[in-house]
Structures are given as C-alpha cells and as structure tokens.
Amino acid sequence: MARTDRSRNIPHWYAGDDDADVLSLTSGEGARVTDDAGDEYLDFMAQLYCVNAGHSCAPIVDAMTQQAREIPYVSSSKTTPARDELAARLADRAPGSLNDVFFSISGSEANESAIQIAREYQDASTVLTRWRSYHGSTYAAGGLSGDPETRSVVERHAATTGVGKFLPPMVHNSPFDGDTPDEIGQQAADHLEFVIKNEGPDSVAAVLTEPVAGTSGAYPAPPGYFERVREICDEYDVLLIADEVISGFGRCGDWFGIGTEGVEPDMITFAKGVTSAYAPLAGVLADEEIAAEIRADGHPLGQTFAGHPVACAAGNAAMDAYADGLIENCRELAPYLEQRLRELEARYGAVADVHGRGLLWSVEFGDPETGEPFVDPRVERDADNPVEDVREVATDHGVLFGSGRPDTQVLCSPPLCIDRADIDEAVDALATGIEATF
Ligand code: PMP
Question: Contact 94/259 with Cβ under 8 angstroms?
C-alpha cells in the first residue's frame, strides 16, 4: 500500500517505531473510508468513536459551509445564532434540569471545565474517578483518567492533584466477587460509598464517570448501579458528572448514555459525536442551579475556540441527522450486532467475553486454553500482543476496528448509519482475524 510521507508528523497515541505504518485516509462516504492507495475499508470504529453520522454527510458539510460564508468566527465571550441554537437544542435533549451549556473544544477540556465548575460550586477539591477510565490527555484530564498508561505520563510530572480513584463496576474480570451482575453492581456502589466516607465527604466535590465505559472496554454498569450511585451522591452532597464524550449522541441508543440508566446527573460533559467529528467542539451541560451560580458570580475562564460557530453549525446539522433516524437505527441494529458478536464468543475459545450497549461493543480476548485474561501489553511492555494481530488481519480484510485500554480487546463503534450487511462484513473479518491468530 502506498503511504504519503508522514515523516514530520507525529501521530497521537504513538506507540513508537512499531506503529510507523499508520493508515493515511483520503476520503470517506457513509461508513466507508479510502486510503491513499485507493483501498476501501469499512470504518467499524467511526475513527475515534466519533463520526457518528458517517463520513461526508452532505447536510453537515452544507451547514458548515454556509456558516463559514456568513461569519466563520465569533468570540467565545460574545455569541451567534448557531451557538445559541445548539445550546438550546442540547438542553432540550439532556435529562431533567441540565439546561445550560458551557462550550469547550475537546473532551479533555470539557472535563477540566466541569471539575473547575464543580470545585467552585462545592468549595471542595477532590474529584473521584474510576480506575481504568479515560477522561483525556491534557494534564488535569490525564490525571482524572484511571488508565495506567495515561496516568503514568501525568503522574511522572506530578501533575495530578485532587483526584481520588474508585473501582469500576465491570462484570467481566471484575474486582468484586459477586455471583451476579446485580450483586457486583451493589458491591461496586458500596465500595464508592466507602471511598467517599474515607476521603471525607466534605472534601469531595464530584464523582466523574462514564455511564457506559468507552476505551476501557465498552462495559455498561450492572442494573441498579447508577441509581445507587445517584443516591449516594445525594446523601453525601457530591455532584455526579457523566462523561458522555463517547457514550453520547446516539452511540448507546439514546441521546446520552446516562439516559439509558434513567438517572439524572448534575453535569454532562460531551465532545466527539456532538458534531459527528466534523469540527472540534465539546462542552459541559450543567444543572440550572449550578449554572445560575456561574451566571451570578461569573466564571473568569474560557477558550478562544470554544463553541466555534462553524462547529456549532455542524452540531445543529448532526443533531438533525441523529433525530431523523440515526438513533433509531442504532437501537434497531444493536441486538443484531450483539447476537453476531455472541456467536464469535460461542465459537472461539480466545473470545473471553463480549459486552456493550447500542453500537458500542468490546470483544475481550483471553488465553484460548485457560481462559485467563491477557495482561495489557502496553502496561507490561510486552511486544507480542495477539489482539493486535487480530485487528491487523481484519484491516487486511477491509475492516477497521478499535483498540481498547487495556489492549486486550477489539472495539466496535461504527457510524450509526450502518446496516445489517455492514455488521455481517465486520463480524466475518473479525472471525478471519481470530482464526488466523489463535
Ligand atoms: N472522555 C472520554 C470518555 C473519552 O473517551 C475521551 C477521548 N477518547 C475524552 C474524554 C477526551 O476527549 P478528547 O480526546 O477530545 O480530549
């Protein structure tokens, strides 16, 4: 395959020289992308879980073009109709009283804004996040993350302050010993209460967590977990912040992942899918009372490109696309994707578990003989990772999948515009990868 010269361009999440052969994509249409050699791929990852409306969606491109012609940039301390409209529409789709939006640019910055707001509002500094979580790569957001590789960078520079960690409520490879998902959910919630009590509830400003885990493995919490977490947060006067950077905008079959839990958080952070990744945009949706305090007292912080008008125009058009059938398509196709992935679990010993929600799924691998989970090679620095081989074979068969943190899994997060035939094609390529590897 031909490659453009990328010798001066350092890719993000660069794994070193082994990672040199990255794809250079030149065009996309719907769920398909084409590289600089003309080879086509089914993008079963929506790039980084973000091109939710698919590539080259004409109404989004048109809205951006029109906005750029009218006025491409307006200061983030002023406003413009596209920005106001998007804020109103987000408030309309968000649960309950989350009616005000503080725009940002990236997911990392949205999370940093949310914790700045929470700390000011609560006059308390500790924020609790899950081990294994991912909340961004900038210093403060990297410190919020529970992923060992991300944290190792920020902690080396002593940049993590005011963050405590709690154990995730995952069922596969769970740190808890409950016999059923419900029991594990209960144990995980009790554990969070223990952590809050021992941190000292007055010092805890917020719990920040993904409603459905993203990069750490597409796992939803067991039934009842979030209801209990909401009760605990209320009891100890701790804010609940849902990081919806991946789980929002239809990805889990609803506007927001927390919507699938029936729980109302105090803030939601969003990014990625809000514009279907056509332009960088992110933000914090805040409860009216919190927002009222910001409005009354002021909030002397901001970013030049927050709520960029061209990105807001993309956001408004993307929200139309989600409402006009994409979220429904996600809901309709989710059981079929699950069924096809469970077939792989039944057929191959190396597939240890599959879990997910909507069109966000993880295929977890383990030793085909013993069933033992693989150790994350990025933490152990073990160059030989069979899961990487599975993905490579799938890529050679024309389907792009994602890697998780830990990298013991293949992640599925396709654009929401796919159909059943796309799912069949992806699952077949994955099966070919598994057969070639194990
Ligand atoms: N939160 C979550 C849950 C994420 O998955 C990500 C990125 N994958 C972020 C925050 C950070 O977003 P960004 O890369 O836009 O800074």
Answer: no
